[in-house]
Amino acid sequence: MARYDLHKDLQEIDAPVILFDNVSKAYPTGTHAVNHISLEIRKGEFVFLVGSSGSGKSTMIKLMLRETKPSRGKVYVAGKDLGRLRRSQVSRFRRSIGVVFQDFRLLKDRTVYENVAFAQQVVETPSWVIRREVPKMLALVGLSDKHDAYPNELSGGEQQRVALARALINHPVILLADEPTGNLDPKNSFEIMNLLNEANKRGTTIVVVTHNREIVDSMQKRVIMINKGVIVRDEKGGYAHAKN
Predict the structure, then answer these.
(1) Coil vs helix vs strand at 47
(2) In the chain, how many domains are there?
(3) pTM of the model
């Protein structure tokens, strides 16, 4: 099966890695989760999506993952219109993007090593490469001594580091994180954000949905604030001066 190669796509075009072109998403009730959003995220950026619950942040992540399609407008990733992807292409596209969720979503019956290796197995990485790369990634997130442990034997912070290792193991161009620190204490939250920052320094474009004002204020990255499905702020800085 051919691998969906965002790295190659981005080398061949000069386009934003993520582009929303006048995008709206309406539900049968008539409620707009997002409403006429236009947005560009360039390769190598670190972006926070912030706003109150129900503002449309998670819908934007779902649109980037092609888990839902816009009611109006177009979403492009690496210059490709996601609305034009065939069903057979969607799963391959998603495998090319790193994703981290609030609830970790680890395979409970597999060890730490096996959870991370699984992400490489689904893209048909040779076994010798997996044996080389997984230990390196576990070392990077500080879990070398936990490779034989199962998720229920780990703390919340450790589980999220496994999830992050799994998301990064295929060296994605883009990593989407939906409330990655939502279930973590402050110490673990900052450790996870430091790992995301290091991944960004290595070239991965990072998009983080969060309610954590302290983290946003401390990191001073690009902040896109959503309110009732509309972008009300888009600038570098913290959350402290943004108004909900």
Answers:
(1) strand
(2) 1
(3) 0.88
